[in-house]
């Protein structure tokens, strides 16, 4: 289901709207304040035509697709399959036909996001970068990121928003390095955050564990680009920002379970989890035991 606020964010997304008005079924979606987003769809028996969208779309097939093909001026059609990747740059045109059910992930992002990432990550002018138009290609790196990092996230839980933003930056950089018209290498940056900046970041995280924390907020405090901040944070703290925050949240929850009798739902909210089920899932992944059983063992 699409909420009212999500509808406002998608009204200018051409490909999302084409699918929504087509035979496609929307299973999940996530939209960030900057207009980028993700959606999981399934479709069958029909066709879809995309005409010069003003945004880029990464399409990744999750299931099926063997009877899905893009209409080309070629003798033999090229068909999809699970783990196949398509890149549809802004202003591209394409027609697709399909005759059996398939499921796919879409990532939507504007060219300004890509250009900004390029300039911050590679320290180069990004006005002339262009994404390649790709159809049913293999990319084991993105496949691994999507299956093992992006899909397991709870897209509607605020505690996972930090992880999604971090993954988004990783995807952008990979696309720029491997699916772009400009060949680039990431500058070699050594060293982490300065001690005073690391202390400031750590204090902010501890003070806001019950709130939504984003890479953008932390990078602004450090006065760094999001890309460089993430790399330097990892060097200073030994893990990516989202993993570090999750560790602190679960440790805080463990302390509250030991020292208070607050209901599990209240502890979940105090530690930045938007629901008790998601809190239980993350706590068990960290401690190999549910919060309820952990509390029992402390008595």
UniProtKB/TrEMBL annotation:
One Pfam family cited in the UniProt record for this chain: HTH_18
UniProt keywords, alphabetically: DNA-binding, Transcription, Transcription regulation
SMART domains, alphabetized: HTH_ARAC
Gene3D superfamilies recorded: Homeodomain-like (1.10.10.60)
InterPro entries for this protein: AraC_XylS_family_regulators, Homeodomain-like_sf, HTH_AraC, Tscrpt_reg_AraC-type_HTH
Residue ranges of every copy of the HTH araC/xylS-type domain listed in the record: 199-297
Molecular function terms, GO-annotated: DNA-binding transcription factor activity; sequence-specific DNA binding
Source superkingdom: Bacteria
PROSITE patterns to which the protein is assigned, alphabetical: HTH_ARAC_FAMILY_2
Protein name (database record): AraC family transcriptional regulator
Organism in which the protein naturally occurs: Photobacterium frigidiphilum
Source organism phylogeny: Bacteria, Pseudomonadati, Pseudomonadota, Gammaproteobacteria, Vibrionales
């Amino acid at each position: 289901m699409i909420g009212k606020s999500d509808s406002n964010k998608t009204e200018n997304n051409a490909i999302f709207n084409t699918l929504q008005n087509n035979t496609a079924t929307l299973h999940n979606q996530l939209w960030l304040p900057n207009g980028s987003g993700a959606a999981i769809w399934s479709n069958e028996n029909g066709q879809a035509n995309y005409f010069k969208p003003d945004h880029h779309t990464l399409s990744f097939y999750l299931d099926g697709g063997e009877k899905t093909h893009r209409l080309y001026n070629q003798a033999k059609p090229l068909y999809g399959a699970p783990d196949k990747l398509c890149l549809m740059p802004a202003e591209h045109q394409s027609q697709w036909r399909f005759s059996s059910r398939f499921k796919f992930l879409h990532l939507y992002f504007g060219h300004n996001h890509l250009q900004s990432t390029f300039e911050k990550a590679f320290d180069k002018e990004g006005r002339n970068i262009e994404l390649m138009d790709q159809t049913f290609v293999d990319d084991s790196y993105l496949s691994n990121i999507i299956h093992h990092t992006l899909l397991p996230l709870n897209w509607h839980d605020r505690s996972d928003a930090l992880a999604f933003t971090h993954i988004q930056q990783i995807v952008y950089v990979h696309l720029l390095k491997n699916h772009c018209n400009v060949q680039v290498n990431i500058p070699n940056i050594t060293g982490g955050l300065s001690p005073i900046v690391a202390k400031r970041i750590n204090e902010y995280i501890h003070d806001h564990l019950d709130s939504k924390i984003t890479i953008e907020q932390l990078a602004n405090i450090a006065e760094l680009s999001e890309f460089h901040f993430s790399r330097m944070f990892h060097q200073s703290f030994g893990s990516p920002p989202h993993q570090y925050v999750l560790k602190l949240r679960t440790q805080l929850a463990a302390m509250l379970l030991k020292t208070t009798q607050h209901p599990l739902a209240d502890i979940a909210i105090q530690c930045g989890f938007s629901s008790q089920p998601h809190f239980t899932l993350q706590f068990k992944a960290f401690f190999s035991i549910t919060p309820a059983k952990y509390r029992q063992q402390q008595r």
